[in-house]
Amino acid sequence: MRANRLLGASLVETNLVKIEHLEAANDRLLDLISSGNYRKSSVLAILAYELQVVQEMDVLHHVMDELGVGIVDLRSYEVPEDLRASTDLNSCWATWTVPFDHEEGVYFVATAYYLSPAVRTYWEKQLGGPVVWYCSNQEIIADYMEKLEASRAPSAVAPIK
Question: CATH fold of 70-152, please?
Fold first, then answer.
């Protein structure tokens, strides 16, 4: 909830959405959360795809142009083994953020929620090392998380002996 609230506030502050649109999105978000639909509990998705008051790409362009954050496409990125086992998927879904690489103590993290200071603070604390931030859209983040989940699932086929 905090990640969504602070993202919404940033979107209003940067004039990407109007306060009345954010209020409508927050009402819808509460409905989704109360129904237990956590994976769709995203104020950004509601604003962009249900209410259609902002384009997700406009948010990404703002983050890139105004804040100097790079963009990453994780669709063909292989999940490193150490992150495959250690990443908290519930936190990823809640924050629309994924650590996607780790080199020499530095974490590389992609997020659709860069404008939420709560998300950045959470992951910087969680990872306990320097973080290089990238932005990405929610579809790419979701695909990556689903690939990560699938890599953890026990094989449906019994091993051949």
Answer: GMP Synthetase; Chain A, domain 3 (3.30.300)
